[in-house]
Write a structure and sequence with these properties.
Blueprint (H helix, E strand, L loop, with lengths): L5 E11 L2 E4 L3 E4 L1 E17 L2 E18 L4 H8 L2 E2 L5 E2 L9 E8 L5 E11 L19 E7 L8 E6 L4 H4 L13
Antiparallel strand pairs: 1-2, 1-3, 1-8, 4-5, 5-10, 6-7, 8-9, 9-10, 9-11
Length: 184
Amino acid sequence: MTLGLRDLYYALITITEGVETYGIPKKMAEAISADLSVTTAEGTLYADDAVSESVKEFVKGTIKLGIKDLETDVLAEVLGQVVDDDQVVWAGDTDEPPFVAIGFRAKKTGGKYRYIWLQKVQFKVPTEKFATKGESITFNTPEIEGTFYKSVATGKWKADYTGLPTSAPAAAWFTKVKTYTVAA
C-alpha cells in the first residue's frame, strides 16, 4: 500500500557498442500518478496428461505518468526533439526518443518509502487536453506514456527498494541510477 508519489527523475542512457551508460538523474516533473503494467510471454508444456513445464518471461511494460507539467528542455530531451534559440520546441517526423531510466518514490506507512528505477524506458509524445475557462477552475495536466524494457547488459528491468529515507540506498537513490551488479 502506498500513500503518495513524488520525486520523479529521469536519466538519459547512451548506448555505445552495446554498452548502456546512465547519465546523471534530473528532475522530470512534479508527479501526479504512475501506472505500470507488464507484458509477459507464457508457455506451457503438457506431458502424460499434466503440466510438465510452465514458463513466464518478462517481455516489456508500459508506464503512464500523470504529471503537473513538462518543462521545454525536459520535453525535448525525453522525446528527441529540437529546441531553438527562442526556446521553441520543434517536433518532427525524424524525432527519435532516446532511452531513459525513470525513478520515483511512493510513501508508505511507518515513515518508509518505496523507491523504483525502471532501467530502460522510451517515451511517446504526451497526451494533452485544452479547454476553455468556465465557471469553475479545471486543471488540464499532460500524461506521458512510455514502454520499458529490460537492460541488455543485465536482463533486469526494475530496481525496487522499500526503506526509510535515511537508509543508505534511499539517500543515494536519486544521485545515480541503481543498477544490478552480480555479487562476487
